[in-house]
Here is the input.
Amino acid sequence: MDTTDSSDTLDLAALGGASISSVLGRYMDKSWSHGIGHRLYDTDGRGYLDFANGIAVTALGHTHPRVTKAIHEQVDKLIGPVHALGFAESTVKLAKMLTATFPEPLDSVLFLNSGSETIDGAIKLARRATGRPAIICFRGAFHGRTIGATSVTSSSLNYRIGYEPLLPAVYQTVYPAVYRYYAGDEQKAVADSLKHLDGLLMTTVAPSQVAAIIIEPVQGEGGYYPAPAAFLQGLRERCDKHGILLIADEVQSGFGRTGQMWSFEESGIVPDVVCVAKAIANGLPLSGIVASTDLMTRWGKGAHGTTYGGNPVACAAGVAVLETIHDENLVENARLRGAELLGGLRELMADHPGIGDVRGRGLMIGVEFVKDRASRTPDGATADAVTARAVDAGLLLLNCGIQHQVIRWIPPLNVTVPEVEEALAIFEGALKG
Ligand SMILES: Cc1ncc(COP(=O)(O)O)c(C=O)c1O
Here is the structure.
């Protein structure tokens, strides 16, 4: 093969299909050339408004100048990890800046490489620090694909089939997905889900055996369902009462996405452990487990580790991300643009009975398709068709939910008013088919 060919002249889908493992699932099979700002360009030169962002990863848009500059500068200084020998400047700087975004006592971070790794690490931390075996997780959760993360994931059977036995002592309880399971009745969702958890602790696993409860404060892959504040408060109370650690998975919902820096802030609770990844370095592989110094100390020196985590280049990008979020008021922008997007989508819902619900916080919004509003039967086929038509019309969207019935809206945090309007106009066309 002539390796001097530009990627713009190659059929990447055909070549990749032949040489990249088919185990990877894809929403589409396009050949991508480059990204600039909020547009992703295919190899035919067509630009798409990117509201997918590699699933909430490039939260500042593609090749953000500040992030790119920081990466270039760091590449000339130090690329490789120096963990085993000491500390690198950008890693220390990011640790300081990142932990400063959390309420007390969350003041310590362990950098890793991916979201899944933070979940496995958090499970290990909880087990070692409490000396207890059990983990409680939620129906419909997605925490990743490593074996520990798989054990607490149930957003799709395909993530679990053929991998059992998974981790032992993992118990599942009900997530308060207000629209899907409680006909929109938030109070009932909170009461019933807490009752289910209490029942689990009374009949199935003794609280004294539970190391941690792990939750996505806004359930992501499972269907973009925000947990009501009262539910998270109820979890916190139970964790405090029984000495159980509360782990918040903010991998998708964090970094300002929901109009708060961290989505758990909406409820006023403080988790014991927070898992962060995705937007942290705007595309470079980096993630982190955040907890108090006290808890990290109880984990024990050398009890966990990493070769690449906290890589200086990824951390330099992470510093630029946090500086940009701060300097450009992007948490506020997520709140404002999110309200506009939510309002626009709700207007469209009024004319489209196939849309059963439009919900979300900030720029993490789900549009759920149903066969009819009375039965709320999920309609994944229509959601898939609408997404495909939006993509054809130049807007990249992704689906989620057990039957793909939810179209998720995760535009970049610095999305503009005209881009929100452009996306709504394309979506309106896609709805009409
Ligand atoms: C909430 C949540 N947790 C964990 C993960 C796993 O992250 P990764 O794919 O980086 O391992 C994801 C990925 O989509 C996620 O959305």
